[in-house]
């Protein structure tokens, strides 16, 4: 068994699609109608057959509450791996991405946390 799709709640699918592709550099894999919303998945440009990230509308009241509370508590909704956190931090900062935590060493891992503008904090990590 392997993970093929994981999701992240977003407040606005179009805004999230723009942020995750234009700022973070993910590639859109799927974008099809799914009722009132769309089934939008993204993949890493380095692994386009790998795990897909679903931009899931936070329409359900429980999803909205969950998203709001973990954001308020400073808890990242998910984590993305990068080769060099400091380099990625500099690249994203140049693109206007706002960070809530600058690159920080935590034992064998260096992390930073960014605001995805769609209701989530995202942690980037370098092992």
UniProtKB/TrEMBL annotation:
It comes from Neobacillus piezotolerans. This is VOC family protein. Coiled coil: none annotated. Signal peptide: none annotated. InterPro entries: Glyas_Bleomycin-R_OHBP_Dase (IPR029068), Glyas_Fos-R_dOase_dom (IPR004360), VOC_core (IPR037523). Pfam families: Glyoxalase. Residues 1-127 form the VOC domain. PANTHER family: GLYOXALASE/BLEOMYCIN RESISTANCE PROTEIN/DIOXYGENASE, GLYOXALASE_BLEOMYCIN RESISTANCE PROTEIN_DIOXYGENASE.
């Amino acid at each position: 068994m392997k993970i093929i799709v994981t999701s992240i709640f977003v407040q606005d699918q179009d805004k999230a699609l723009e942020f995750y592709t234009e700022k973070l550099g993910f590639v859109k894999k799927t974008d099809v109608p799914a009722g009132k919303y769309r089934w939008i998945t993204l993949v890493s440009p380095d692994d386009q057959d790998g795990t897909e990230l679903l931009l899931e509308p936070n329409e359900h009241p429980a999803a909205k509450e969950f998203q709001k509370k973990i954001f308020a508590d400073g808890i990242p909704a998910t984590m993305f791996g990068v080769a060099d956190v400091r380099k990625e931090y500099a690249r994203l900062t140049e693109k206007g991405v706002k960070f809530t935590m600058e690159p920080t060493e935590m034992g064998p891992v260096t992390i930073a946390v960014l605001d995805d503008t769609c209701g989530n904090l995202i942690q980037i990590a370098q092992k």
